[in-house]
Amino acid sequence: MNYDAQPTVVRSQDSVLATNKLLRNTYSLLAMTLVFSALTAGLSMAMNFPHLGLFTLVGYFGLLFLTTKLRNSAWGIVSVFALTGFMGLTLGPMLNYYLTMPNGSQIVMQALGGTGVIFFALSAYAIKSEKDFSFMGGFLFVGILVAFLAGLGAYFFEMPGLALAVSAMFVLLMSGLILYETSQIIHGGETNYIMATITLYVSIYNLFTSLLHLLGAFSGDN
Description:
By secondary structure, the chain is an all-alpha fold. It has one domain. It is built from 7 helices and no strands. α1 packs across α3, α1 crosses α7 and α3 packs across α4. The longest helix is centred in the N-terminal third of the chain and has 42 residues. 29% of the residues are buried.
């Protein structure tokens, strides 16, 4: 007679409940931060905020560091909204730029729609298939580092062709990051919903801006 069967079932049920709670908390916080980010982007557009340039990276990494330090406290929530609100502010000037194009509204809506389709499709696939994508971690880290450095090179040396290639790289890398992070949540690799939210938010933000750049470039008006 197997006396360990019942405890194993109980542990399994507890694990499923914990995963479902983590997913619920992550997606709830993600939805709220996306709405807040959209509001700050709208404010930035209305007030015609200037492009912050490299200060965007300083603000992002500073707030990311703060959020990481506060991830296990209630102040972590405040830091998450500070980070995502700041990223929304940096998005405003970019949106204003594309909206000045003759078909700018269409480009923005296509980028937004494409981002939504990619995110929901990949998230649903990772959840339904329950595949473990942890093997992608090392590749994604190296790929993002290379793309980031290449992006800095394109910015400083004014190389539009390289910038376009970096945007294409980020579309692929952020798609992979969505699969990876969702898999981490499901399989217990990520247990903090604040950090899970940040990772998914950054994936969505970079995916949207990269699609925006690609669509704007191929529209013939950029």
